[in-house]
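chain below, 428 aa
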Amino acid sequence: MAADPYVVWRNPNYRLYAGSWFLMTFGRMIETLTIRAHVYDLTHDPMSLGWIGLVQALPVLLLAIAGGQIADHFDRRRVLMLTLALNTLVTGGLLVVTLHGGRVPWIYALLTLGAIGQALGAPSRAALLPQIVGVEVFSNAVTWNSSVFHISSMTGPAIGGAILSAPAGVTAALAVVIACRLFSLAALSWVRIERVERSEAISPESLVRGIRFVWETKLILATISLDLFAVLLGGATYLLPVFAKDILHVGKLGLGLLQSAEAVGAVIMAVLLTHLPPMKRAGRTMLWAVAAFGAATIAFGLSRWFPLSLAMMFVVGAVDNVSVVVRHTLVQMLTPDAMRGRVSAVNNIFIVASNDLGGLESGLTAGLFGAVSSVVMGGIGAIGVVLGAAVLWPQILTIGSLKVVRPLESPAVPPLVPETLVEDEEIV
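prediction:
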């Protein structure tokens, strides 16, 4: 029998969660686009975009493990709401700063405070989903969650770019972000979740257990490391203001469209993944997707024609979403619920390191060699990462269907390749 692609939407708590997630991400995309464009307008220096990546990455690298510990010992919904409220206040601060001249050091300071909220809240958000939906539909929920993320990532930059093109654009854009976060908080307040007993006491041992679990579960380590190094080297997102203004000459509206094109590709891929039969060889598919990510990044860096640049960002988003679905399903489903917050924190460190430290890397290389060389070299590096991952972690090639993934019984010493994922005629 064919699986119901919309099964998770029949859960009213998931609908509230997804609505909150959409607004949260929609606002964040507008804020990100606005701040990067504003800072580049103030400085005309690609390196200033790299510093944004650094100030947003450091708090997550330092505090994410603590955020995971919090997620595994306190009410995850309340933790998420508190950190979302903090980010709302940060956006209010950014609005005040931009109204009074927009000094860049103050912007960096507020972004650092917002990243602290991200570090402490992201593990709770990721670990909350399995408390809302059952394991039998979790892969479906992950795919739709990715769709919601990318729909908001598609519409947010496009609308944000249009708002920025208008008079008082920065002020109006940040006001929209504040409204989105307030409505997101309201939706979260109505979510009802399954209560989970937290029996493990807080201790130094429990703090590092998530790191140990990821290190010993080679399939999780391999997939999140693959994504880390591919995006760290190959990401072009932080340099989009440079391409839009100085290379393609399409202005802020074009900047919004470039960032939206990536999300359009991801949304279309997510819809395809929910309607097509489940991937039979998810590991090999993931490797091919990351290689295509690198190739499309190279083409984008070399392009001087705006429609081709849009098309390559579309491909980047589409193939990256395959990797997202495989990675996130493995991270959440192989991990016992009592450890999901801490393991999600480790995963969040990898994601932030790839995205925000990737922005720092892009800013540095663009300052030294130019934006085009930075992006092209990054795409070549992403392809090299695929080859290295296939050699270093051949377990990736054994990942079959994601529908059969279940939490490991012993988080202390999990097997290198869980039996439920080994290639078998019934699975692949």
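The radius of gyration is 20 Å. Residues 72 and 338 are 6 Å apart (CA to CA).
thats it, cya
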